Amino acid sequence: VQLQASGGGLVQPGGSLRLSCATSGFIFDDYAIAWFRQAPGKEREGVACVGSSGERTYYSDTVKGRFTVSRDNPKNTAALQMDSLKPEDTAVYYCNAEGIRRYRGRQFWGQGTLVTVSS
Asked: What is the sign of the dihedral through the CA atoms of 92, 72, 17 and 86?
């Protein structure tokens, strides 16, 4: 099983970044995909989630209206479009796969990608 997050980098406040999560080794359609982040000295927090079909999404209050989560099931990938970035969005971002239906209880993590919002 692999989840490969990419797309992080340095961006100025107000800018945008698009994170991608490429996956393999599991039945992508049977997993919800979530994005978490962990800032220095803080606990990991969930910021966005997309259901297995892509129809349902969830956002934390801190990113709602600025971030958009999506997935492409035929390509086994997910993305997090981040707009109007703020310095407080600086963190390592992780993608996570959580199983549903017969795979309920299974969970996979990818390595993180660093996002730095600074002028």
From this structure: negative
